[in-house]
Amino acid sequence: MSHPTQDFAGRPPWARPGFVAAVALIALVLVAGLVVGLAVVLRPDDPAPPVGVGPTATAAPPDNTSTDGQRTTPPTAAPDDVTWELVGQTAVPVSASAGPRTSDGGVASGYAHTPVGALVAAAQLVVRSGFSAGRASWEPTIQQQFEPSPDRDRLLATLREAGEPPAQPGELSQIVGYQYQSYSPDTAVIGLVLRAPSAGTPRYHVLSLTLRWREGDWRMVAPPGGAWTAINRETSDLVGVVEWGAR
After folding, report:
1. What's the structural domain count of the chain?
2. 48-66: b or e for each residue (b if 16 or more CB lie within 10 Å)?
3. Residue 53 to residues 41, 137, 178, 238, 240: CA-CA distances in angstroms?
């Protein structure tokens, strides 16, 4: 999923070119597309390695579980039962074991109470809450699947005020990887990595997404100030990132 060269500095990764200034501040690293987040150390002087390059162990991790029997140790390799489906122009993961279990209109819910469930939820929710997913998706997703907060309300208000038409083909970033930053049965922090549209050296955005287990499902925590740029970093270094995305 390649895209024309663009400069996304200071923009949310999913915000497309020409996006209203206010929306650009909260349009998320999806650039109307996916999110590929992870906490990687920025090394602007290093050449960008191929997507997924980095220490990715293949051995199965210890099967640690919480008191309710749920797995608590994040896997060190990409989930093997994931398929990818389009939401607008952006591919999102679907897993028979991790969810979502239900999809109603623009809302997808019912994620496993596991690290993989949190990962799939992070990708689904960040894409579905993006402007380019369409109001039938972003409005109920933010209302129902984000934790209530002033930041959530600001994000929602900004999208409601936007009047920009949807992105055109080739203008959206796509999910290409992830890195678990921390995980507990109550809170998951996941770096979702997105590849920015570019005809030259690959450029990536890392969204540090926080999810909390509430009322039987994973809920997204809105970014500070309702601006996805607050939790986004740009990098060309994918060391430590697990390759994960549509093929």
Report:
1. 1
2. beebbebeeeeeeeeeeee
3. 14, 33, 12, 6, 7
Which run of H or of E encompasses 83? Answer: strand 82-87
Q: Is 56 part of a structural domain of the chain?
A: yes
Listed in sequence order, the DSSP H helices in the chain are 21-24, 115-128, 135-145, 150-161
Residue 37 contacts residue 194 (beta carbons within 8 Å): yes
Residue 80 DSSP one-character state: S
**Residue 8, in any domain of the structure:** no
Q: What would the pLDDT profile of 56-74 be if each residue is shown by its tens digit?
A: 333 333 334 444 446 778 9
pTM of the model: 0.73
Residue 116 in any domain: the answer is: yes
Average pLDDT over residues 223-238: 93
Q: Is there a domain that residue 13 lies in?
A: no
Cβ 98 vs Cβ 122: under 8 Å = no
pLDDT at site 150: 98
